[in-house]
Amino acid sequence: MRNERKKIRLGFIGTGMMGKSHIRVIKERFNTIAEVSAICDTNSRELKQANEMAPEAKPFSKWQDILNESLDGVIISTPIFTHAEISISALQAGIHVLCEKAIATTKEDCFKMVTEAEKSTKILMIGHENRYSPYYAKFKEILSSGIIGTPYLVWFKEARGRFHHKIDNWIQDKTRSGGALVDKTCHHFDLMNWYLGRKPSAVAAFGGTDVIKVLKTPNEIEDNAVVIVDYEKKARGTLSLCMFAPTYFPKSLEFGVFGDKGFMGGMESGIDISQNEIIVIQREKPEEVMEINRIFTCMKTANDAITFFVTPPKDGSMHNGFIEEHIAFLDVIKTGKKPLTEVKECLYGTLITLAAEESMQTNKVVKL
Fold first, then answer.
1. Which of 85, 125, 206, 338 has the most CB atoms in a 10 Å sphere around its CB?
2. C-beta of residue 173 within 8 angstroms of C-beta of residue 105
3. Could you give phi then psi for residue 4, rounded to 5 degrees?
4. 8 Å CB contact between 99 and 122
5. pLDDT in tens, 268-289
6. In this predicted structure, what is the pLDDT of residue 268?
7. 87 closest CA partner among 131, 127, 56
8. H runs (alpha helix) in the chain
C-alpha cells in the first residue's frame, strides 16, 4: 500500500482582504501539499466569509486559541501593531510564521521579534513578496553581475490612490499602522537595502496630511512624503510617495539604481501591474563625450540601452511575488532553511520607515 504524504497544516490569523488572499492561494495552488486547517478573526463577518472559502477549517475568534492547534505554520495578516505579540507567541508555540509586512510599529517590537526568532527553532518570515518576484529578482541578478558597476544611488517614486478600506479604518491610524511609510513603503526600502547591499545610517524625511483625511484626528497618516536615506560606503537612497494620485496612474511606481558604470531602471503601472521590463544604460567612456558649444552631449542614445523582459505571471496575481512567497514559506516548513525574507534580513526595511516617521515629526535627521 502506498503511504500518502501528510499535508502541511496551516493556520490563518486575520481573515480580511490579505488573509483571504493567502487562503485563496493555498487552496487554489497548493492544496495537494498544504491545507487550511484553522482560521481566526475577531470580526465575525470576515471570519464567516473565510469559513465559506475554507469550510474544512476550524474557526476561532481568539488568536491565542488557534495556537493550541497542531499546526506546522501560521500566516498572520492582522494590523501591524499586533504583529509582535502574535508572532512571538506562535514561535514559542513551536510554529513557523509568515507575518505580513511591516515587521512592527515600534523599534522595540522589531528587536523583540528578531531576538525571539534567533532563540527559536522555528522561523519568522516577513511578507516582503517582492523579493520572490521573478521581476525584482531578475533586477537583483543583473545588478549583481556588475553591469552598471558599484551601485551608489537608488530611488523609488510611487504615485497612487488612497489605501483600500480596512475594518475600523485601522490603516489610517498611525498608532495602529505606524503610518503610511511604515505600512506601504517598507516594501520599497526593503528592495533598496537588498539592491545596495549596505546598512542605512541616517534618515531625513518631510511629509504631511494635506489631501486625504479620513479620521480627521492628529493620528491621521500622511498622504505624501519625501525620504532621504544615507548608507554606509557612500551610498544614498531617495523615495517620494503620493497617496492622492488617480487610482490608475499610468506609472504608479518607478525606480532605478545608478552605479559608477551606468543605470538600471524599471516600473510598475497602476493599469498593468508590471511592465516586466528592465532598462540598462551603461555610462559613456570619456572619449565618447564631446563638447559642442560648451554643452556636453553624450554620443550614446536611448537606442543603445539594453532591455531585459521578464515573463509576467500567468494568473496576474495581486502582487509581484505573492505566489512565489507561499512556495518559499512551504519550503521553510519542509526544510527549516531560512528564506530571503527572514525577519533579521528585513529589519532595516521597517526601521527606515520608523525613522522617517520620527524625522517628519521632529524635523530632525534620525540616526540608525
1. 125
2. no
3. -80, 135
4. no
5. 765 554 568 899 999 876 555 4
6. 79
7. 127
8. 17-29, 44-53, 63-66, 83-92, 107-119, 134-144, 174-177, 180, 186-196, 322-335, 343-362
DSSP state of 5: P
pLDDT, tens digit, 9 for 90 and up, residues 34-75: 999 999 999 999 999 999 999 999 999 999 999 999 999 999
**Angle at CA of residue 218, ends 210 and 76, nearest 5°:** 95
DSSP 19-76: HHHHHHHHHHHSTTTEEEEEEE-SSHHHHHHHHHH-TTSEEES-HHHHTTS--SEEEE
By C-alpha distance, which of 211, 108, 226, 223 is closest to 174?
A: 223
Q: Could you say which residues of the chain have pLDDT below 70?
A: 1-5, 269-275, 285-303, 312-319
Contact predicate 75/10, CB 8 Å: yes
CA-to-CA distance for 353 and 37, rounded, in angstroms?
34
Beta bridge partners of 290: 297
**Amino acid code (one letter) for 218:** P
Backbone φ and ψ for 127, nearest 5 degrees, come out as: -80, 55
Of the candidates 141, 139, 234, 129, the one whose C-alpha atom is nearest the C-alpha of residue 190 is 129
